[in-house]
Amino acid sequence: MKLKTLIPKSEVRRQVVQRRTEIPQSEIRNKTKLIIDKLSSTDEFVYAKNIYCYINSRPGEVDTRSLITYMEGWGKTIILPKLNKQSKSFRRSYFLGWDNIIKNNEGYWEPTVGADDDMSDVDLIIVPALAVSKYGQRVGYGGGYYDKLLKQTFAPKVVLAFEFQVFDYIESSVHDIRIDKIITERRIIDTRKNRSLH
User: Fold this and answer.
1) In this structure, what is the dihedral angle of CA atoms 109, 29, 52, 178, given to the nearest 10 degrees?
2) Structural domains in the chain?
3) CB–CB of 93/84 below 8 Å?
4) What does the alpha-carbon distance between residue 192 and residue 159 come to, in Å, rounded to a whole number?
5) Strand 131-133 with 157-160, pairing
6) Is the pLDDT at 108 greater than 50, yes or no?
7) Which of 27, 72, 73, 138 has the fewest beta carbons under 10 Å from its own?
8) 198 pLDDT exceeds 60?
9) Long-range CB contacts (within 8 A, 24+) of 67-70
10) pTM score, whole prediction
11) How, if at all, do strands 131-133 and 166-167 pair?
12) pLDDT value at residue 66
């Protein structure tokens, strides 16, 4: 029996951050378009009316700004995170156009107005990740904000990532919320199927 090689989160972070500094903007644009094309072919996207998404704010990330513009064209209702520093959590706010977006003190882009905590109408949540495993383990940015948020919804959880962000196994704990699907420029990975086969 082959033993799993668990990669520590610290090593995963180091590898991915290094790769992301090397990826040219033109490649991000091209690969983002392929990722959006694949996302739009999924039932989760097609049938979702209210989609929770984030605005990319770090170098080398999938360009979710172009995704948000694309989703507007589909008539989707777009919900964005709004940071609540007191509770160290994200609230939610509707996307009302780019004129209403500002960068907060933590470096995240967020809406200027409106926020509540009701996640009951969210049909799909697009989750940021530094890295993911094909079994749905996710490495975030260390703040724990999304771990709290993901516990509040049963909506399908999807990560948009470049291929170099996908690993076989990543160190995780039993409390980590797993991702349902990963969409890269090359493929759609259903992590639920991988877990049932494993």
Assistant:
1) -110
2) 9-197 (3.40.50.10420)
3) no
4) 13
5) unpaired
6) yes
7) 73
8) no
9) 67/32, 67/36, 67/39, 67/126, 67/160, 68/95, 70/36, 70/40
10) 0.90
11) parallel
12) 95
The total of other beta-carbon atoms located within 10 Å of residue 195's CB is 12
Residue 1 has pLDDT above 50, yes or no: no
Looking at the predicted structure, is the pLDDT value of residue 100 above 80? yes
- How big, in percent rounded to 5, are the helix, strand and coil portions of the chain? 30, 25, 45
Which long-range contacts (C-beta less than 8 Å, at least 24 apart) are formed by 53-57? 53/78, 53/79, 53/80, 53/95, 53/125, 53/126, 54/80, 54/81, 54/108, 54/126, 54/127, 54/128, 55/80, 55/101, 55/108, 55/109, 55/110, 56/128, 57/103, 57/107, 57/108, 57/109
Among candidates 159, 99, 97, which has minimal Cα distance to 128? Answer: 159
Percentage of the chain beyond pLDDT 70 is 94
- Structural contact between residues 155 and 126, judged by C-beta atoms closer than 8 angstroms: no
pLDDT of residue 197: 62
What's the CA angle centered on 59, arms 53 and 62, to 5 degrees?
A: 40
Chain segment 5-40, per-residue pLDDT in tens = 677 788 888 888 889 889 999 999 999 999 999 999
pLDDT of 93 > 60? The answer is yes
pLDDT at 25: 92
Helix orientation angle between 64-73 and 25-40, rounded to the nearest 10 degrees: 40
